[in-house]
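Table S7 (text form). Paired inputs.
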Amino acid sequence: MSGLEQDRVIIFDTTLRDGEQAPGCSMTLDEKVRVASALRDLRVDVIEAGFAAADLVMKRSFHCAELAHGQIELNASVAHWDVEREQLTVHSVTQVPYYLHLMLAQTLGLDSAAIRVVKPFVGGGFGHRVEPLNFEMVAGALARAAGGTVKLELTREETFLTHRARPDSDIHVKIGLTKSGEITAVDAEVVQRGGAYAGYGLVTILYAGALLHAIYRVPASRYRGYRVYANTPPNGAMRGHGSVDARHAFESMLDRMAAELGLDPFAVRRANLIVPPYRTLNELQVNSYGLPQCLDAVERASGWRERRGKLAKGRGLGMACSHYVSGSAKPVHWSGEPHAVINLKLDFDGGITILTGAADIGQGSNTLLTQVVAEVLLLPMSRIRVVATDSALTPKDNGSYSSVMPVRIFTPQRTSRSVRSSKAGFG
């Protein structure tokens, strides 16, 4: 598979038997060609020199099964078509109301000003709803056709078929380490079964390779990612979008190599720590880095040195590290605005209304915004109201990805700046 031409696109049929060819395809199934998209190598120039400098080089393969989100709340949408105004209003369980707004306009051929999207207070999505889904488009189309209101609620089986969860993955990792545990080179290949549609698939396979970086120093690396079309439910984002399975493989490799070199797993991680600010080979910028303190705290709290290797039969003590990116350099719904904005309105009764497009899916962004505004304006929280995720009223927000992005990254930073500037206007 690694010998495939760059950017070659091949569609395959999973119903074929070994040796059979799909119509119009010159390659057979037993050649294991199930590739729909390939990412260019991230870095190749010094990879072999890196492995040559290693005292130990190890290569292993890992298989990780497909995994569904299993969110309790079923997919549901209520759409209303205003016949006189020719306007559509959609209430849905989406994590990305403004992305849904964009796709409704494109799918139904409507002017964006003719669409209103409202996200009620919903439960967790865990990545299942980070892209507009088919039932939302269908509800909008049916409402327009009926000239009225349509409610569409999926069954549990239909929600599973909509899917968009973590893909079945085959991961091949090769790592070089020095005797002291320093990484000299990393070579990785990831093949993900993406299902019937692409969706966020290219992002999923990108993250699998991109996030091999930014937690440890990696002086040389090569990554090949392949996303496979299959006649199964489409895959996409799920908690740690794209990175979880690859990180599991990487950390497992470090443990195995540490054991072979006679090194403690903590020592191997500490041998590869980053000093911020740091720019990775694939151009990720690391400005904050709490891993050294985290390692120290976990080692102490777990009783690592006292307990490891001394527990009862069948019990063990292990460790691993992981990380994730913050923010979005290139949001899907680009309008030139910041990633997230809030507006504050001084009401006639002396209260403050927060207008926010941030999608609260249980992670508490509405509460956090209330706390931030109350602290900056020196007001009790009882004087503050929140109006959230109504495209007719609230400013644009890029959405809640996985579970906590807007709380930790998008919303608070913009909120602090917005509140401070607004405070000056209140006198």
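Next pair, protein 2 of 2.
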Amino acid sequence: MRPTRLLAALPFAASMALLAAAGATQDGGTAPAAPAPGAPAGKPAFPRLSLQRVAPEIAFRRPVQVVFEPGVDARMYVVEQAGRVLVVDPQDRAAKEPTVFMDIRPQVNSRGNEEGLLSVAFHPDFAKNGTFFTYYTSINAERRRRNVLSRWKVDPDTKAAKPGTEEVLLSVDDPYSNHNGGTVLFGRDGMLYLSCGDGGAANDPLQAGQDLSTLLAKVLRIDVDRAEGDRPYGIPKDNPFVGVDGARPEIWAYGLRNVWRMSFDRKTGELWGGDVGQNEYEEVDLIVKGGNYGWNPREGLHAFAGGKGAPDAKFIDPVVEYGHGEGVSITGGYVSRCAAQPELDGIYLYADLVSCRVWGIRAEAGKLVAGPELMHTTRNQLPTSFGEAHDGTLYLVTFEGSQDSRAKGAVWRIGTSRQR
């Protein structure tokens, strides 16, 4: 996500121009897209999206993620940035009150716009071991900011987080309030992946992007099912920087400024991320083992003014980028694999927090084959995240109207116009 001040810095006319250029319709949609290369035979490349509000009687407070425990779609976990996790049945439109699964607000530092409880993930064997993981920002005993990855247990009787079971796995010093990254998830290899931002401020003052001795500006990969030495987790032997002098062995990929939401394509196993840009460009990346994505010598495909390092080094190009005339803060999404929505199959959806646009692309082996295509523009809803149910249904998470600390929010089921 991006600091509130950037929203305030956008003149009203410029903000309206962003929305007008997006082609918003009265129902918050966009005109139907024409077929394009890369679509399944006989199907539109990018069908028009529709949104249906989940639990419309419930007002969430700054929701930043929705997740599901493995194999269970009747319990949607809504992560609120201040430090609560609430449970709702996404099919119950009459629900008035959510169930509180976790409330760790006293230990979460959510004072900054990009601080708070940022992500939750359930262990793949959750049904057996009852463990889940959180990633949040905190203030330590020395009054310094840190980003914390923790493991927790669920009380089998209450089906809520069990107090006193937190085990801190990883703590990363982070001197500024912004650029905390913020997605924790599991791959089908059973490993835990975590995106960490570059430490904050602007322009990468710590020069973390190209520095393999720090966990900032990286995607990490660890084994949470075993301890190793003085670490409460293991280092997978096939991590790319194991045995490299001066490099942290947890690193999977680097040169990433602030990946705000990443996800695995459940069909291909590919890891997708939305990397928030600095001054000019937002980007979608296919994140691979040992990949260097160029921050801060580059921003997107372009040399970054003030960056250090050669902008023409062997960096991995983004699958797609967009300039700040179209939006200023990317929210990474998912590749749709829902059997009930074959017209969306293979489309990667992503959005922009400020312009409220939702785009789709098709890619093969990391190369763009169709799009980007504008598929929807929300009205007064700022996209903060996407979510995926066990059956492949995708969801959009939004703040309503602003990034104010008291902002309400909502969750929306993503469909297509034919499903209205």
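Residues 12-21 form the longest helix (10 residues).
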